[in-house]
Amino acid sequence: MRKRRTAKKSRRKQLIAVAQRKFLRGIILVGISFLIIIFLIGDRGLYQLYKIKAQRKITQKRIEELKTERHLLENEKERLETDLDYIERLARKKYRMAKKGEKVFKVIPK
Questions:
Q1: How many domains would you assign to the chain?
Q2: What is the rounded distance in angstroms from the CA atom of residue 72 to the CA atom of residue 79?
Q3: What CA–CA distance (Å, rounded) separates 88 from 97?
Q4: Type and span of the H or E element at 69
Q5: Among residues 77, 92, 94, 107, which is most buried (max CB within 10 A)?
Q6: Is the full-model pTM beyond 0.85?
Q7: Range of the domain at 18
Q8: CA dist 45 to 50, 54, 57, Å?
């Protein structure tokens, strides 16, 4: 009879130990799943990092374009301030201006 009781008790202890291990595994699995979701999708997750890097690349490209445009405009400004031949060519081409005594002919394409 004692053997039965001890066998039942040991069997019961084994079942409790198995249930505790399953419960602990479940808790760990839920915790890891939660951390993975936060790591991938959260405010500072991989997806957000990817979006920020893509936006940064676009912004850097725009900055380079603006620097190039600024450089060209500074060169244009310098030429307009100092180069009289350039000013004359620009006035003739853009504003159709002429010197005294010159005639301007307008060509009409057929």
A1: 1
A2: 11
A3: 9
A4: helix 46-82
A5: 92
A6: no
A7: 2-95
A8: 9, 14, 18
- Calculate mean pLDDT across residues 4-28: 86
Residue type (1 letter), 17: A
HSE of 58, CA atoms in CB hemisphere, 13 A? 6
User: 45 burial class (0-12, 13-18, 19+ CB within 10 angstroms)?
Assistant: middle
pLDDT category at 11 given cuts 50, 70, 90 is confident
Residue 104 included in any domain: no
What are the tokens at 59?
């912004």
Residue with tokens 């603006």: 66
- Amino acid 20 reads Q
What tokens appear for 60 in the block? 């850097």
User: Worst-scoring range by mean pLDDT, 45-54, 62-71, 75-84?
Assistant: 45-54
- Whether 84 is covered by a domain: the verdict is yes
> Model confidence at 79, in pLDDT bands (50, 70, 90)?
very high
